[in-house]
């Protein structure tokens, strides 16, 4: 048993992640062709505009259910919203933010673009810490946008007129996944500017604009879009109760900074914070690259229902880096 | 197999008699026959070479009111259904109903450089109601190889009131020519004739390819105007050859004040035509593509300039060690 544990701790989780990502991409992008579906309340960016999808993003389901009169939302019909939310939570609480690191098709796509950049020999980019702190607020703004706008489309607040229905679905219309992911099943129809009203023209143009920024941004910055992802913000609200956790033993940390340097989203706290036990921050993808890169025994540990399933070891660190060389 | 066919025929007959069914004529062949049949003229109708070596046009008999998913009939219609094909100059064309590789179709020789109206007709008394079933398809068979010197006969007075009890006729546009194609977003005007006379107050329903419906009522001149709606996004792969079908349907009941053995007269009419996507669809795709490329270019340029600014050129500084 001890040997098996040691074998796992000394292994490369990024290699496992690479194959899981390919399988998950196939499942979430093309699963519908085989009749596979995990429903429409998944905590990842698997776009419903991609027709053969094997399960779709909770955000569109949330927006649809929120587009209701307030009295309807707070009646028995609100059960639909509650059921959808509980389904989302049930999925999320098992894997926590590893949905982003291992399963999200849009995240996988960004990782592939990063690999392409590495092959082509282009230099990568990092945000400065102050810029990073400013930009990370954007995802919360997107979350508020997608929660509030559907309500304002139907409900008049303080006697103000309701918003145009052309805003709907407020986040999906500007989401790059709506344009990019269907392309992988041969559907380019989302790439268009909708001229039927000013609102729809602006919203669809923003969608195209963000898709362009996504492609260029992901090329120079690892996991560029994840910093702005409202799903990530929603995850963080419930992250503390999840079964899968990333824990840090601050006493063991030498603040060497390896974890920060390998982090795709440049979370500085992973290296600096030596007091928190739960080290999952709002931008964390739970890709566990930090655990791989940590040279200290038992400093970073991945637990599932409090059972350690992967942890940093000195032996594993040197084995992995020896393999790389 | 034989019992299956008999049962199928009985089912078709039963539903027809019950008046529950709308059959209509379609230019689109069944999927499994599409590759084996040649497309003919600008109307892209399915065609084959007949036994006498002459080309024949095929119009498929379908049932169901959503063009995208309507079934193709695979049994013959009851014997009292008639086929009538007329050119826009009023000449009759020999047409017949035939099972083509298991699918029911109206077969007729091409009449080039003019409109051809094909009708499937059936009239019967059900209870105290005289029911007229009319399914119509209108095709403009034109090939540019034949030249464009012939005048397009746009409208000929409808003079077959004795043969076609109800007809919905598209009024031609002023600048309409041999290359006319109905386009999503454009307005189409139709005139309804009942027994050869323009009829006002008749409800006409337009049904687009995936089943979007709208019902309007004809004015006193029997004219109704529809704006053609595209209810799907055209895949870019079908940029040039994308054609979809829309249906017009009339179900009209009126009392009869005469010595006839029925008190009501019911008109069930269907007509199918093809339409192409609006050109604005293509322009919206072009704008999006342009915007995407521009965004990518501008942001790439921005990153390049930013990096260039932050790059510090290598400069060798030699220290004077003596001082």
Topology (SSEs and partners):
The complex is a heterodimer of chains A (325) and B (323).
Chain A: H1 2-9, H2 13-30, H3 58-66, H4 70-73, H5 78-95, H6 98-103, H7 105-120, H8 129-135, H9 138-154, H10 176-180, H11 198-220, H12 230-238, E1 244-248, H13 258-262, H14 269-272, H15 289-293, E2 300-304, E3 307-311, H16 314-324
Antiparallel strand pairs in A: 1-2, 2-3
Helix pairs in contact in A: 3-5, 3-9, 7-11, 9-12
Chain B: H1 2-17, E1 23-26, H2 31-34, E2 38-40, E3 45-49, E4 55-63, E5 71-72, E6 82-87, E7 92-93, E8 96-100, E9 103-108, E10 114-126, E11 129-141, E12 166-170, E13 182-183, E14 187-194, E15 197-198, E16 203-207, E17 213-217, E18 223-227, E19 244-255, E20 264-276, H3 279-310
Parallel strand pairs in B: 11-20, 13-20
Antiparallel strand pairs in B: 1-4, 2-3, 3-4, 4-5, 4-9, 6-7, 6-10, 8-9, 10-11, 12-14, 14-15, 14-18, 16-17, 16-19, 19-20
Show the largest interface: A-B, 22 and 22 residues
- The total of beta strands of chain A comes to 3
Q: What's the number of extended β-strand segments of chain B?
A: 20
What is the mean pLDDT of chain B? Answer: 85
Briefly note the structural class of the backbone of chain B.
alpha+beta
Beta fraction of chain B: 35-45%
Global structural class of chain A: mainly alpha
Order of helices and strands of chain B: HEHEEEEEEEEEEEEEEEEEEEH
Which sheet architecture does the biggest sheet of chain A show? Answer: 3 strands, antiparallel
Q: Which spans of chain B have pLDDT < 50 for at least 5 consecutive residues? A: none
How much beta of chain A, percentage-wise? Answer: under 5%
Shape of chain B: elongated
CA radius of gyration of chain A: 21 Å
Helical run tally of chain B: 3
Largest sheet of chain B: 9 strands, mixed
- What's the tally of helices of chain A? 16
Order of helices and strands of chain A: HHHHHHHHHHHHEHHHEEH
């Amino acid at each position: 048993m001890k040997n098996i544990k040691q074998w796992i701790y000394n292994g490369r989780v990024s290699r496992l992640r690479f194959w899981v990502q390919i399988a998950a991409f196939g499942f979430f992008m093309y699963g519908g062709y085989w009749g596979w579906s995990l429903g429409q309340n998944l905590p990842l960016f698997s776009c419903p505009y991609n027709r053969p999808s094997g399960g779709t993003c909770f955000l569109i389901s949330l927006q649809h259910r929120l587009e209701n009169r307030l009295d309807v939302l707070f009646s028995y019909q609100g059960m639909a919203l509650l059921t959808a939310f509980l389904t989302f939570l049930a999925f999320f609480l098992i894997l926590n933010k590893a949905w982003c690191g291992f399963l999200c098709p849009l995240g996988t796509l960004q990782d592939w673009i990063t690999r392409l950049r590495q092959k082509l020999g282009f230099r990568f980019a990092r945000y400065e810490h102050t810029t990073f702190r400013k930009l990370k607020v954007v995802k919360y703004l997107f979350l508020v946008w997608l929660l509030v706008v559907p309500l304002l489309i139907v409900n008049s607040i303080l006697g103000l007129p309701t918003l145009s229905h052309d805003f709907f679905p407020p986040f999906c219309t500007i989401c790059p996944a709506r344009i990019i992911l269907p392309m992988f099943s041969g559907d380019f129809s989302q790439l268009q500017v909708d001229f039927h009203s000013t609102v729809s023209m602006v919203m669809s143009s923003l969608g195209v604009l963000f898709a362009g920024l996504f492609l260029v941004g992901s090329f120079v910055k690892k996991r560029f879009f994840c910093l702005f992802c409202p799903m990530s913000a929603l995850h963080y609200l419930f992250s503390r109760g999840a079964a899968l956790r990333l824990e840090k033993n601050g006493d063991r940390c030498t603040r060497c900074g390896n974890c920060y340097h390998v982090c795709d989203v440049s979370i500085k706290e992973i290296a600096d914070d030596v007091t928190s036990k739960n080290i999952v921050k709002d931008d964390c993808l739970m890709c566990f690259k930090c655990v791989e890169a940590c040279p200290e025994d038992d400093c970073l540990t991945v637990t599932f229902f409090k059972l350690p399933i992967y942890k940093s070891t000195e032996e594993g660190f040197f084995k992995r880096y020896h393999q790389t060389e | 197999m034989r019992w299956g066919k008999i049962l199928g025929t009985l089912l078709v007959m039963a539903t027809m008699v019950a008046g529950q069914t709308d059959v209509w004529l379609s230019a689109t062949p069944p999927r499994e026959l599409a590759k084996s049949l040649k497309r003919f003229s600008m109307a892209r109708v399915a065609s084959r070479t007949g036994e006498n070596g002459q080309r024949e046009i095929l119009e498929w008999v379908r049932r169901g009111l959503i063009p995208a998913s309507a079934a193709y009939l695979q049994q013959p219609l009851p014997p009292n259904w008639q086929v009538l094909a007329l050119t826009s100059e009023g000449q009759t064309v020999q047409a017949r109903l035939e099972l083509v590789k298991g699918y029911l179709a109206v077969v007729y020789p091409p009449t080039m450089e003019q409109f051809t109206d094909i009708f499937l007709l059936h009239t019967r008394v059900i209870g105290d109601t005289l029911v007229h079933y009319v399914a119509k398809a209108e095709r403009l068979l034109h090939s540019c190889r034949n030249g464009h010197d012939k005048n397009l006969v746009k409208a000929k007075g409808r003079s077959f009131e004795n043969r076609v009890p109800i007809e919905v006729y598209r009024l031609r546009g002023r600048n309409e020519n041999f290359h006319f194609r109905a386009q999503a977003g454009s307005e189409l005007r139709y005139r309804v004739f009942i027994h050869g006379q323009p009829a006002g107050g008749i409800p006409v329903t337009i049904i687009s390819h995936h089943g979007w419906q709208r019902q309007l009522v004809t004015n006193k001149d029997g004219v109704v105007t529809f704006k053609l709606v595209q209810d799907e996004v055209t895949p870019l792969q079908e940029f040039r050859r994308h054609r979809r079908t829309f249906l017009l349907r009339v179900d009209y009941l009126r009392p009869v004040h005469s010595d006839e053995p029925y008190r009501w007269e019911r008109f069930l009419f269907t007509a199918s035509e093809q339409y192409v996507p609006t050109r604005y669809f293509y322009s919206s795709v072009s704008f999006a593509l342009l915007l995407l490329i521009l965004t990518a270019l501008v942001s790439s340029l921005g990153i390049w300039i930013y990096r260039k600014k932050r790059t510090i050129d290598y400069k060798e500084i030699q220290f004077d060690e003596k001082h």
